[in-house]
Design a protein that fits this description.
Number of helices: 3
Radius of gyration: 14 Å
Strand content: 25-35%
Largest sheet: 5 strands, antiparallel
Structural class: alpha+beta
Oligomer: single chain
Shape: globular
Strand order of the largest sheet: 1-2-3-5-4
Order of helices and strands: EHHEEHEE
Number of strands: 5
Length: 132
């Protein structure tokens, strides 16, 4: 399992991206699968900065990930503002004329399972993605 503590700054995603990329290289997954994981991680990470912390700050974002039986399990934790309601669009048509929501749509379509919960002052985003 890989565990990272990153500042809630957009530049911190570079370290996260490199860590995920090099970790997944051990498993010889397709470039397409790895690219999808990196896109999902970027969307979750930037959503935390924009919506939970309301902008870049020195607060931490904790990320853990590991692979088991060709499935990636990834969790993001932060102590920013609680998300009251997570509305994941079912289609791109639902997004027409609206601001926001594309990131959640991409996360849901590129992951096999995506969830969010708020527990003991923590926002927790978690994904599962089969990489075979």
């Amino acid at each position: 399992m890989v565990s990272l503590e990153l500042d809630a700054k957009f530049d911190s995603f570079i370290k996260l991206r490199e860590s995920i990329f090099y970790y997944l290289q051990k498993f010889n997954f397709s470039n397409n699968s790895v690219s999808e994981v990196l896109l999902v991680a970027e969307e979750i990470f930037t959503n935390i900065i924009r919506h939970s912390y309301k902008g870049e700050c020195n607060e931490p974002i904790y990320v853990t990930f590991y692979v088991s039986n060709s499935t990636l399990y990834m969790t993001f934790k932060d102590k920013g503002e609680k998300v009251d309601e997570l509305k994941i669009p079912n289609s791109l048509i639902e997004l027409k004329g609206k601001v926001g929501g594309l990131g959640l749509y991409l996360i849901s379509k590129l992951s096999d399972s995506y969830g969010y919960k708020h527990s003991e002052n923590w926002n927790i985003n978690f994904i599962e993605k089969n990489l075979t």
